[in-house]
Amino acid sequence: MYPRVVVLFTVLGLALSSDHLQYPDVPPKYDYNYAIIDDQTLNDYGHQETRDGGITTGKYYVALPDGRLQVVTYTSDEGGYSPIVSYDGEIHAHDYTPPHAHVPQAHVPHAHVPHAHVPPPPPAFVPYHGSHHGQPLPYYR
């Protein structure tokens, strides 16, 4: 009984004290960025963003398969989201090697040879002789 009363008063105390917790109303302010470059998979992309109050600015980029870098520079404020898309670099044609063409082989059906059905051998029956430790086994109906 005692642990239940302690838990009840703890929960009640937390519920009453949460009314007094208020976070200050400050305008958001942050700055972050990241970049990924992986030579093995040819991934190259990143993002940078800064926010001060109601105005957010930033840019993100990604390396395209044709060799160019697509860059999106944006601003977001009370007027909405305003992106500017640009491309850096020249288009490079990749050497295309078509995959080896698969030539289907002619299907030659095999003659169906029926197999003789051989039933499995019957289970081995081993009769029980005697009792367990000299006692007869119980019989249940």
Automatic annotation (TrEMBL):
GO molecular function ontology, one term from the record: structural constituent of cuticle
Pfam families to which the protein is assigned, alphabetical: Chitin_bind_4 (PF00379)
Signal peptide: 1-17
Key words, A-Z: Cuticle, Signal
One CC-aspect GO term: extracellular matrix
Annotated protein name in UniProt: Pro-resilin-like 114
Annotated organism of origin: Homarus americanus (American lobster)
